[in-house]
Amino acid sequence: MKGIRPITTMKIFDAEALLLSGTATSEFIDLREIAQDYKFSLEYIITGSGTITILYLVCSTIDGTYIDAGTDLLTAGTGASLISFTAGEPELAPFMKIKITETGTNTAGVTVYLNVQ
Fold first, then answer.
1. In this structure, is residue 22 part of a structural domain?
2. Among 1, 60, 66, 83, which is 20 to 30 Å from 27 by CA?
3. 3 lies in a domain?
4. Beta bridge partners of 84
């Protein structure tokens, strides 16, 4: 029998309003205690007429320079879904941020949950 490996869910953005090519970056997410198996998924809800790109940034220190080390997790319009990170992502790092961008000239509301095991 495997040991207990709970899933931690964090609300990263809550109906964040992005206007006309707007961008928002989350506070840092400390992965040191919650990423036992280093498995990640993301649930998103997008409302409005905008198209949103979601990506992750990683860093070795809380207050260092966060690096876009992977590909965009997704680009999507209105809707909701749950997606897994690509195998081998995110890059191994103790701290992460999630960045969302409206890619055009519309507006969107974005809610994002991060699931970590």
1. yes
2. 83
3. no
4. 41
